[in-house]
Amino acid sequence: MIAEILLVLAGHSSSIFPSDHTVNPAFRPLLHPGEEQCLQAVGRIAARYRSIKKSCITLTRSQSRYICALCATLNQLLKDEYEGLVVETEAKLLRRDPELVARGSFVPLTAVLAVFSGWESPFIALQSLMEQLESQDEWKPGPLIDMLMTRSKTGTSRIADIFSRLSTAVQRTWRAQLAAFLIHGSITETDPLASEDYVLLEGSTPACVSPQTRESIMYIGKAIGTVKRKRWAHQIPREQAFQHAQLLDTVLPEDKYRFDSVIGQIRTTISEWLWLHVLTKKDVEEAVVSLANYFLLRNGEFCLALIRDIEKLKISRLTTRTGVPSMIKEQDLNLALLRASLSTTAQHDPSLLKLKFKLPSGPIRPLLPSFSRAGSKSLLSSVNGNSNEAASFDDLLLGRSLLLTYDTTWPLDLFLHPSDLQVYSALFGYLSSIRKTQTRIHECWTSLSNAQRARRRWTGLGEGGTAEDLMVRQQLLRFGWGVVRDMGWFLDTLLEYVMVDVVDLEFRRLKGLVTRPTQERPESIGRDGGATHDTNMAPPSQTHLDFTTLRNVHTTYLERLVAGCLLSHPSLTTIVRCILEICERFVAQVERWGGDVLPALLFEGSLAAGGHDRVGALVRERFQVVSEIDKSLHELFESFYQQLTLMTSYQPFTVAGDASRSVLINTSIGNASTLQRTFARGKGLDGEGEVRRHVEQLLLRLDFNGRFSKPTAGL
Fold it and tell me: 313, 333 in Cβ contact below 8 A?
């Protein structure tokens, strides 16, 4: 009977247990109740073992290499430890080991159960694992590794050890796939990690792999795969690929920090090799110049023509005949890009073809500027409430969200990441909104001047009207001129600061670093992975600009632009947007009035019967509108100056995060120190005091005549 029990424990069937672990009724009269319980416990262990082995045989037929690796490891583990324990127990019985054989002739069932009871809990966990694996038709490596790592985190040492070994086996299989992708750029047909365009598939990586590491994996695989597919003149050196393979063999993804470090080292060496042989300095220089010309409005004549063409497009759609489609589509805006380039320096620029407008909400109907103050009130309430949500400017140019994109092809996308292009798009929306509003204010000034010259032909030196409303008309005209003058002064000052003190200065600094004459680059760089890289902007005395430093320089450049343009300060951006909306509202109101603040003399109705009761009513109505706009405008000017002053009173300067975070994700950033923190990088280029000087220059321009610094009794 003991021999048959050992056979049952080894996975064979027996008449003692006709079904599962239930003892055959024919044996029950011959057994003591305690012996029956021991047999049932042994039967349960044997039944779970058979169930696990049966599931392993079924899952081994799976097409997933990860499931096959798990089953192979589990079979080997059971063979070495559990089945070995059965054989060892049988050998002890044959030797009549006193631990199992009492008095050399009697074997208690409790002794056999005590030997195998340690496997009861592991078999329960493994049976649950098999059921979970069989419940799904397909298992991706990421969720599979996550599930095994989660199950290994238990207080039972044997269960933790078993699941840890299973997890390690699956991770090694995944690491082999990863090595093929990172070292050879190859994508397998079965269980691929990435798509044909080298984007990691969903579920292809475990959760312990950080997003930055996943992005680096895609970067490396795409670079190597593209170089091999295009049969580039220079290929990755075999010695370097061998070193990368050795590095990967030393880590598993469960060791998160070491794994991230190894992937970072591989990315650094690959980037250096690409910078030496694939991505040339000329490509980077052309991209930086074209992005600055069109996204940062350094090509002034083209940007001004583009703003006017978009305004003409809106008007043409608003005045179209009935039955003709009045929607504005992306192709209409892209055609406006080409029209705006005519007779400008951008006409023959090949990089212009890489620019495309994108409408996130699809085709739109053009809208006239609104006279409502609802939007301004909500923004003003957010300013007064110290909201940390940054305002968006991508809807001011067209009336709806409008994004300018730049088509990056390989190998330029190794240098320009999607997050960088999103920052450029946000900067374009901000700068173009200010430029458009400034243009509208200048047009309003021209309209008021033309209207006054036409009126003076009939009124001489006065403003006309009856004796009752003569003074009111003069006050309204002076008031209107004052509002336009203040708007134009503020926008001119802000745009001059942004374009001259921030954009132009930072662009010339970046271009000087990129185009600086360099000595011959040593071939050893990027091969041994031992080169060190400075994260700050390189000083002029440095003779070699490696790829890592170039990326850091460009990232710092974007951070400086975002901070210098005040986009990293939520309260300031909200105030600027409020000012732009009030300016648009005033210009739209003047256009509705016919291009003049004063009503025409015959519009007062003084010739009608009883008209003397209505003399000056229209003038008073317009005076009230202009007065309300002027009051709101000066309140915003005061708030802007106060917030800007607070920025210079906080110490110290510290490093901020990625520029894209403050612009695109509307993160909660400190109200007064974010701009200063961002400028801390690049101490070799006056990093710590740079922002303070910029902000102080803007403060001096705004307070040139002591308008804000001197206390006033009222407006």
Answer: yes
Tell me which of 273-287, 359-373, 497-511 is least confident: 359-373
Q: What does the alpha-carbon distance between residue 569 and residue 383 come to, in Å, rounded to a whole number? A: 12
Gap between the Cα atoms of 399 and 333, Å rounded: 13
Least confident range of 233-247, 340-354, 429-443, 532-546: 532-546
Handedness of CA 347, 351, 354, 357 (dihedral sign): negative
- Give the tens place of pLDDT for each residue, 57-93: 898 888 889 999 999 999 999 999 988 888 888 888 8
> What one-character-per-residue DSSP string does 84-115 give?
HHHHHHHHHHHTT-TTTSBTTTB--HHHHHHH
- Tell which wins on pLDDT, 714 or 450: 450
β-pair type (355-358, 403-406): antiparallel
Neighbouring residues of 17: CB distance < 8 A, sequence distance ≥ 6: 8, 23, 24, 43, 46, 47
Cα distance between residue 99 and residue 296, in whole Å: 85
Closest CA relative to residue 208, chosen from 176, 140, 254? 254
Sign for the pseudo-dihedral over CA of 672, 675, 680, 683: negative
For residues 702 and 715, give the distance between their C-alpha atoms in angstroms, rounded to a whole number.
Answer: 17
Angle, in degrees to the nearest 10, between helices 418-459 and 570-592: 30
The pairs formed by 242-249 with CB atoms below 8 angstroms and a separation of 24 or more are 243/269, 243/527, 243/528, 243/529, 244/182, 244/183, 244/269, 245/179, 245/183, 248/175, 248/178, 248/179, 248/182, 248/183, 249/175
435: its two tokens = 């430029």
The H-assigned helical ranges of 500-546 are 505-514
What per-residue confidence (pLDDT) applies to 683?
41
Number of Cβ atoms within 10 Å of the Cβ of 549: 19
- Does residue 712 surpass a pLDDT of 50? yes
Residue 679: pLDDT band (50, 70, 90) is very low
Q: How far apart are CA 187 and CA 226, in angstroms?
A: 12
Which phi and psi (to 5°) does residue 19 adopt?
-145, 125
Q: Distance between CA 358 and CA 427 in Å, rounded?
A: 15
Q: What does the radius of gyration of the chain's CA atoms come to, in whole angstroms? A: 38
Token reading at 518: 């360099």
Give the distance between the most distant pair of CA atoms in the chain. 136
Residue 358's H or E segment, with its range, is strand 355-358
Q: What percent of the chain has pLDDT over 70?
A: 78
Residues with Cβ within 8 Å of residue 389, at least 6 apart in sequence: 382, 570, 666, 668
Evaluate whether 244 touches 529 at the Cβ level (below 8 Å): no
Flag whether pLDDT at 614 surpasses 60: no
664: confidence class by pLDDT, cuts 50, 70, 90: very low
